[in-house]
């Protein structure tokens, strides 16, 4: 429905609440008393899309398995390397390294805190270096366990039965503010002996120093490992820190200097952004969501997103090719969570709207939101919806690219070409709350949105535009 803003105050309110960078299909400059302002709405078509793979480069690793009656089975494992501090030196007069653990620390998890799962850690047979040419390693569908690119030692590096809530730790410790839950995997004796020999080699006269930097350590001592779930079901842990912790013994003199004694120290090496880490997910069985005629879905990790077809033809044919688009916005209502699951998934905090053709480059090249081709909306619990604004910049950019006219007859093809995706993401902010980083949301979450048919106004695009008065 088209509405003319007749009152002067109404006109001012409409214009000054619009985008501060008005753009349009047609561009013009006019005095305030020489323009007319209008509002119009267009129905928008939405649908559910599967995302079989997403770019998962993240500082968080995920581990576990959870089966849900609505979304099927979700399984997560990860491959990681350990960083060696540059120029690291072991204590003088080292006796040996007598035990080593791999420790996976987490503050959050999804699912049954008491569910028992077993993690198997496999050591890589040969080293590798991430030189930036293998983007596929960072996609969630990449199978490190079965790919021919990776070979592992026959003996597991370690096995560990665990639950997200560690029942071996007392409740009083669990409730302390400095408690940091972890899964601690004791590694096999062969690895401990190899690590011990490499450490003592550093102290031999003329010996090789395999701890001088991360790549030397990776090439000669520990190429990396893959952690996977081999038994159990019920939880996914969100791992924030990974440590290789060594218990070492070395000789020291007593205070009188006449007797040697053994001292014990713990030496931690961490996984860090300087070395490789990637999580892979298996997530399937989305038939019921794809067939839902009233809703579209968001599901993370590596699951579902919502596709939106922009009503480009209707906008153009409504005589807007001579208008300035002052504001374009879309609100996406969310249905109440009606899942019957005992462990209800959270709601994605942020959605990114981006053209499908630009999605891959956006994540692989670590781009950020520009409010021209990519936009962010946060979930508003008060309205139970996500709202995007400033989309006039996107619409105008598309029209400037396709340069349509009254004779354009391939609108269906053009709208297909310029579809946008609504993708759950996490964002990073600077001290001024500017968005400086965007990555796929890999936590366990979901939402069911109202579906737009493109014919009714279940989902609608709201446009405020201006045009010169005709004299």
UniProtKB/TrEMBL annotation:
<dbReference type="Pfam" id="PF14092">
    <property type="entry name" value="DUF4270"/>
</dbReference>
<protein>
    <submittedName>
        <fullName>DUF4270 domain-containing protein</fullName>
    </submittedName>
</protein>
<dbReference type="InterPro" id="IPR025366">
    <property type="entry name" value="DUF4270"/>
</dbReference>
């Amino acid at each position: 429905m088209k509405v003319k803003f007749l009152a002067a105050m109404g006109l001012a309110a409409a214009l000054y609440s619009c985008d501060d960078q008005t753009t349009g299909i047609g561009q013009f400059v006019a005095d305030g008393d020489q323009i007319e302002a209008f509002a119009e709405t267009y129905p928008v078509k939405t649908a559910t899309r599967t995302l079989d793979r997403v770019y998962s480069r993240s500082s968080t690793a995920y581990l576990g398995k959870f089966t849900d009656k609505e979304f099927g089975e979700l399984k997560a494992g990860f491959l990681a390397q350990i960083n060696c501090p540059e120029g690291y030196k072991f204590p003088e007069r080292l006796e040996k390294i007598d035990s080593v653990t791999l420790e996976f620390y987490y503050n959050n998890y999804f699912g049954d805190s008491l569910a028992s799962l077993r993690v198997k850690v496999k050591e890589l047979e040969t080293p590798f270096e991430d030189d930036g040419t293998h983007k596929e390693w960072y996609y969630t569908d990449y199978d490190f366990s079965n790919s021919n690119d990776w070979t592992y030692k026959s003996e597991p590096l370690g096995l560990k039965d665990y639950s997200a809530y560690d029942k071996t730790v007392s409740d009083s410790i669990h409730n302390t503010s400095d408690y940091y839950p972890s899964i601690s995997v004791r590694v096999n004796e062969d690895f401990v002996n190899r690590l011990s020999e490499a450490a003592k080699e550093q102290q031999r006269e003329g010996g090789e120093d395999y701890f001088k930097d991360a790549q030397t350590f990776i090439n000669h001592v520990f190429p990396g490992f893959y952690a996977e779930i081999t038994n159990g079901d019920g939880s996914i842990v969100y791992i924030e820190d990974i440590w290789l912790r060594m218990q070492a013994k070395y000789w020291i003199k007593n205070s009188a200097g006449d007797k040697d004694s053994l001292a014990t120290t713990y030496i931690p090496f961490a996984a860090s952004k300087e070395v490789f880490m990637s999580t892979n997910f298996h997530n399937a069985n989305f038939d019921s969501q794809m067939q839902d005629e009233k809703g579209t879905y968001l599901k993370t990790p590596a699951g579902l997103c919502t596709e939106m077809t922009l009503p480009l033809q209707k906008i153009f044919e409504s005589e807007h090719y001579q208008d300035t688009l002052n504001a374009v916005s879309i609100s996406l209502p969310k249905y109440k969570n009606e899942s019957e699951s005992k462990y209800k998934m959270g709601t994605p905090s942020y959605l990114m709207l981006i053209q499908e053709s630009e999605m891959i480059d956006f994540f692989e090249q670590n781009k950020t939101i520009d409010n021209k081709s990519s936009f962010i909306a946060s979930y508003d619990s008060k309205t139970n919806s996500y709202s995007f604004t400033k989309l006039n910049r996107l619409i105008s950019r598309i029209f400037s690219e396709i340069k349509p006219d009254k004779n354009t007859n391939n609108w269906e093809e053009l709208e297909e070409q310029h579809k946008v995706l609504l993708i759950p993401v996490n964002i990073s902010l600077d001290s001024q709350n500017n968005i400086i980083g965007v990555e796929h949301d890999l936590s366990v979450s979901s939402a069911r949105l109202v579906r737009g048919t493109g014919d009714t106004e279940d989902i609608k695009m709201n446009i405020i535009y201006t045009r010169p008065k005709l004299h």
